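dumping this here so i dont lose it
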């Protein structure tokens, strides 16, 4: 497969994951699997949360695409798996490391975009119930959170 096409597939998949993450959060995490996601809003003692199970769920399609792309002629799946993986890494760094400070990295970042992401996420966490689970995407932040 052409490298340029592979990169395009990776970028399209990465971008599509923003919708998948938003949809899953709104309708699955704040819906039928609220019992897993609840401890992310109502923090309970301990480093790990039930909510961390979603990392494994999101890893399954990426791993499956890597395996199928490596063992069949559907090599485009490797690039799609890479897009999912890269989105997962980005999500981990932005959500768990930067916003929630589960790891003490990027603590002194003073970038307007990152401050806006943090503000938008704090508004989401004001809701401690499964209702009003609307959350802004990680990559697309409403302009009203800039320059506050």
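and the seq i came up w/
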């Amino acid at each position: 497969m052409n490298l340029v096409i592979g990169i395009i597939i990776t970028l399209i998949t990465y971008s599509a994951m923003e919708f998948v993450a938003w949809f899953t959060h709104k309708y699955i995490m704040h819906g039928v699997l609220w019992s897993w996601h609840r401890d992310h809003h109502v923090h309970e003692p301990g480093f790990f949360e039930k909510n961390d199970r979603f990392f494994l769920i999101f890893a399954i399609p990426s791993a499956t695409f890597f395996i199928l792309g490596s063992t069949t002629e559907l090599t485009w799946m490797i690039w799609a798996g890479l897009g999912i993986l890269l989105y997962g890494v980005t999500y981990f760094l932005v959500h768990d490391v930067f916003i929630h400070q589960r790891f003490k990295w990027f603590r002194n970042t003073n970038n307007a975009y990152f401050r806006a992401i943090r503000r938008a996420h704090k508004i989401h966490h004001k809701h401690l119930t499964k209702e009003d689970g609307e959350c802004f995407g990680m990559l697309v932040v409403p302009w009203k959170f800039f320059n506050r």
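The radius of gyration is 17 Å.
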